Structures are given as structure tokens and as C-alpha cells.
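P.,

For your records, the input lines for the assembly:
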Amino acid sequence: MTRVIKYVFYDILRTRFILMYTVFLLISTFALFQFDSDTGKVVLSLLNIVLMVVPLVSVVFATIHFFNSYEFIELMLAQPIKRSTIFMSEYLAVSFSLCTAYVVGVGVPILMFGVSPSVLTLLFTGVVLTLVFVSLAFLSSVLTRDKAKAIGIALLFWFYFSLIYDGLLLWVVYSFSDYPLEKVTLALIAFNPVDLARIVMLLQLDIAALMGYTGAFYQQFFGSSLGMLFSTSILFIWIALPITLALRIFKRKDL
Amino acid sequence: MISVKQVDKKFGNLTALDQVSLELKAGKSYALIGPNGSGKTTLIKSILGLVIPTSGDIVFDGESIMRDWKYREKIGYMPQIGHYPDNMRIGQLIDMMKNIRQGNPKLDEELIDAFKLYKMYDKRMHALSGGTRQKVSAALAFLFNVPVLILDEPTAGLDPVAAEILKDKILHEKHKGKLIIITSHILSDLDELATEMIYIFEGKVQYNNTIEQLKQETNESRLNKAIATLIRQKELVASVTDLT
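C-alpha cells returned:
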């Protein structure tokens, strides 16, 4: 497996995309630290980048990479290597490079301007979100043979979780506002990894009330640490579920 | 060595393989013949595990390949159209394959030398012509000295010199007692290289016997005439059964 991972890495590094992504994160984090000396505020601004940009980059890069390495995958499949080994090598190499880019890009400025628990949580949520969206990207890649369609599905995941889902949630809360909705909203939030990441972050920052009704309730219901544990474990399900599903499809796929 | 047992493969509504059963034995060389889209490549890909049969089983050395992958150590595969990572160089690709398939200590670099590929080690795969690509595919298929060789249209796109080199190599390996499966539309090539013939039409095995037998049955001395006669006979039978 390490041998296959090595070659996937080699391929990823050659495109220089990962390098550009790292530089982009470095510059924006540095810039934010320059604008404001209050780490709390910087973390909040960074949070917005993490919640929008990281999933978008992860999902698009992973899908494009998967289709660009179709030839490599085809070649490897005719060799004495297990299908799951090939697939998981691709997944691990892509996730690892994106996570490294993120940790370096956001982590280096943070190290220079001072470490606090909240920035560590920020790093953590970014890594988890990367893993979730690479999972989703791989799922969309095995669902179809068409590159454009797969990128479409991948982008749809991003749109859905970053924009549409919140709208739907608001609509539900608004239309059924006459009923006690606390537990329902809690359950509904678990279906969106981006919301979960936001909650983990806000619970850490102790400003959950800023998120309004749900945030406040979340904190009251779980307390900070239990809430964190709950949302983190659901986030891990969000990593494991799509990739397991994708692996199952890939094992039965004709190439 | 390889037995294909009642393999069906459907792509949506299209039946690519229809109850295909075959016994492929070590030491023999099989010519896989059939019109375009008759299921030859699908059959080959099923043996390699690239295509998963809808039903049926394929057994390699007594073990089903459905959950297995180790058996591919014993197969050298030359695809019809070789797809390789675009920005890799030839040398890197060959090194990578050696690195990935470490199980075979005895490498056979004869074709790399014969095709003078080492002179082009620095060329990137996307810059290669179709013929050079075929040479790389051939060199990779023979590199690991494996007992089973599966060659999908090996000589298509090669220049006459390279085609002769490859044919000599195939004959040489055949005499070593390897199992060789070749598909081709160039029947005169198959006449030299193969001893057995499998004729596939619309996913069904229509004929499976030695080439000698076929020539006797059809009273023809050359393979292409013999096959033409065979096809005409089949068509005749089909039209008669359609009438009734």
C-alpha cells in the first residue's frame, strides 16, 4: 500500500495545486492577523474561510484528481494489488496532501501569533472538514464515469451543505415555529457536516449564543464538552460513511 | 489453468457475454476471434478482474478469482489501448511497475532492448505516438516473466519491424510452455502464433477447437479462408433456423 501511496503523492505534488492552496491559506491568514490583533476575532474570520473555502477546494480537487488518475488506477487494477488498496491509497494520499496544505497554511501564522485552544480547534475542524469533503468527492467520483457529471455532483454536495441546507433548516424552523423544535433542529444539524463543524468551533469559542436559538440550545442541552464530543463523533461518521459506500461501489465497478 | 464457467456480463440492456464457458490450458496459445463489439475485450477484462461478471465464475489455478487478486501476479496484460499516467516518463513508468510488482525476481527486459525503449526513457507518456505506446505496453506485459500472457490486439499500430520482433517474442514464450491468449483481426498473424481458436459472436462462443481441426472441417489451408467459410456456414444455419 505504501508503494502505491508514494506514486499517488508523486503525482499530486507535480500539479503544484497543493502548493498554491498552501500559499493562498498562508497569505489570507497572515492578512487577517495583520488587520486585527485580537486572536478571537481573527479566529472568527478564519472560521468563515474554513467553512466555505476548505470544503470547496477539497471537493473539487479530490474529484478532479480522481478522474485525472483514472489511467493510473486502470493500470494498477491489472496488477496484483487489491482494489481496496488502490482506492484507499488514493483517498489517503489526497486527504493527507490537502490536510497538510491546510495545517501548514493556517498553522504557521498561528504559531507565530500565539497558540490558544480556540485556534487548535480551528485547525482540527478544518482537517475534519477536509476529510469529510474528500470522502464525498470520492463518492461522487465512483457514482459516474463522466468527469463533468462527477464534478457537478461534488459541487452539488458543497452547495447543499454550505448554502441550501441552512436555508431549508431556517424554513423548517420558521414554518413550524409554533411547535417545540429544539430536539428536531438538533437532529437536523447532525445531517450537515458544515453546521457540525461550526458548532464545534462556536462551542469552543463560548459564543454559541451568537448562533442564535439552536446554538444556545445546543450548549444548554449538551454543555460544552459533551456537545463537542457528540458533534465530533458525528463528523467522524460523516468521514467514514461516504468513503465506505464509495469503496463498496468501486469494488464492483467495471473499468 | 483458467476456466471460465458460464459467465454472463450485461451492460444495462446490452449482453456483452452470454453463458461463456471455456477451458484455457497452460502450454497452449489461443486466438480469440470475433467481429468488433463481440465481447472479446470484455472476456479478457473479466479474466483480469477489471470487469465483474453479472453471473458465473472464473477459476484460475483451481481458485475462484472473484475475491482474489494475487493470481494477477501470474498474468502479463497488454491492453488494446494502453492508458498510462500522462506526465510520467517511460523510464519512470517501467521503474514504477518493477517497484509495484516486486514478487517477480527474474525480469525479462528483452523487449525493452529490442524496441530500443531505453533511448526514450526521458519521453513523457502523453508525447508518445500510438505505436510507441504499444511498444511500452508490450514491454511491460513481458517484463515479469509470467506464465500467462494476455495480448489484446498486440500488433495493431506497430510498424512491420516491431511487429515481427513482437511475434518472435510471442512464439519464443509459447515454446517455453506459457499460456497465451491473443485477440487480433490480422488472421495471418494468428495462423503463426496460435494453435487453438475461439470464435466469439454476439457474446457467445461459436467455435472452440484447434486451428488444425478448423482447417480440416472447412477444407481450407489458410486461417482467414477457413474463418470466412466458418462464418458463412454459421450465417447459413442462422438464416435456415430463422425461416422455420
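Two observations worth noting. The helical segments of chain B are 40-48, 90-100, 110-114, 130-143, 160-175, 187-193, 211-218, 223-243. The interface with chain A takes residues 11, 45, 48-52, 69-73, 75, 77, 79, 83-87, 96-97, 99-101, 103 of chain B (CB under 8 Å).

Regards
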